[in-house]
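Here we describe the complex-level prediction in full. Unlike the single-chain runs in Section 2.1, the two entities below were treated as one system.
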Amino acid sequence: MQLGRWLYLGLIPAILLLAGFFYALFTLVASAFVTDGVVGFARFASFFLRADYVDVLVRTLWIAGLTTAIAVVIGYPVAYLIARTRTGRTWLLMLVIAPWLTSVVVRTYGWMVILGNRGLINGFLQWAGLAGRPVPLMYNSFGIIVGLVHVLCPFMIIAIFSTLQQLDPALEEAAMSLRARPWRIFRKVLLPLTLPGVISGAIIVFLMATGAIVTPLLLGGLRDRMLGTQIFQEMFELFDFPKAATMAIILTVSAICVVLPLQWLERRVGRHLRTVEE
Amino acid sequence: MNRRSIRSLAMALLSAAACLVASTSWAQAPGPGGGITMGAYGGGPGDVWRRVAKTFTDETKIPARVVDWVDIQPVIRSQAANPQYNVGLGNYIDAYRLAKDGLLETFTPDELPGLKNVPKAQILKTADGRIIGAPIYFQYYGIAYNKDLAKASDFESWEALADPKWRGKLALTRFIWSATYDLVLYAKLHGGDENNIAPGIPLLKGLAANAVTVYSSMAQMNGLLSRGEVAAVPYYSARFWGDAALPGVGFLLPKEGGLMLPYMLVVAKGGGDRAAALAWLNYAMTAEPQQMILNATGYIPLNQTVKLTDEQTRRLGMPVADLLKRLYQPDWTVVADKQEERVNLVEQLLSQVK
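The structure predicted for the assembly as a whole is:
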């Protein structure tokens, strides 16, 4: 009992830290609803009255959605390969995680060297006579999506891998023994059973893509601003915290509007799978 | 491990983190009698400032430490409640905005006798006439170009930046600086000034139409220029001095002149050891450290008693007096006051550029 009391005393710094964190967060969020001492939604109205900001919001959601879709398409086969590999699975997983050992800035700079006008791909295309002039692969939405898919794909792979690993390979073998073709096995067996993993991965990738800063800054062009970079500018260059808070709330609410239906779907699929198992 | 153990472990880790944060914060604060802890831009400037700090410490026995930072404003603003730096290096806009928000110490002329060697126009003051900091040096805004993709003669005038032949081959600095530097300079070139920036808008839009991207850091721009991803960009003169010069990249001051970009040392309010900070500011305004900085970085002294060597003048391309005649020095207080409004304007204008 005595030791228990001391343990509670030891929690005081953590409680103070959390209190400081939540106080700061509350103050920041509250500042978005106050304009010149008047409580209201004036800051939100100003945001939506600026056509360029609305474009930035739409672009952010569109790029995040496309990045998520591409990450699913690339991540699923990779996760399947790793899950069904008997030897060297750990090494393959290490290979997926390895890029995380390098800073996202360095990785993005790598893409600049590859995608640039004088980069690896354009150099090859021109050398092979496939393009007379450099193909614009960077400083546009394409460059941002390539960079984001590279940075975020490991999250998708690991989310899908974790569900695939729990799946008994005998299910696929049973389907094959009933002469089901691979596409049908994927559609009727694998995909429904791994859908919770796909949805979890999609939620993680989508949320991280909506808040991306470094990749859009380095690989995006003049007309490819995203909301994360806009918040960064308001926060660290103009020090307009209420405006940054307004944008952050808009971004969070927009992302929730996409994520909530996905979570609902995830729960529904999970319930359905448990019923089938029973 | 059950849930309760995980919760306990998480709370214990948080507690440890809280203690660590508190201890490191207290350990770094200079405090009274603690000497100088100064923040400077990383890379070349940070290195030479460390050498200057050593000579200062040798002469005065006041300990001085120079730490690299990315930018002065975020640091000084975030440390306001618990300062870790008592001196910082920044441009005039940063200094004015910080002083306006009450985050900097201000001084009387008696406290900074070195100001007698600085042109009056370079002394930045608050609305009530107090001096904000110690003017140290300047660089200027010109045009950098890749020698494979362009010739110096292509950019004899700033107007060339809007020439459609450069479409997709130029770059633009971040909106905050294109609204602050480019727009003000282009306005001046077309009959406006820091108060009336409308005449500069067409040239900025012309440049934006040709720009392939917005560069977010010097490192990024250096790479783009030297790799030939970008043919030219409005850029900073100190990047082209001695060892810092980029291979295959040239720099020029167009015939209309350029924008003078001065920098100063400021003292953070509540940063501790004000007396040491003042001694450091006065030392930094003397000729010896300013010569040392010019040699290493190309930042040109604001102390008018500093005599440049023939070699330094050659590298500069002209005598300082001639250079100054070609540079435009706006009222930075006006530029700083209107910065946010103009960033919003530039964002909206450039989002329409096709």
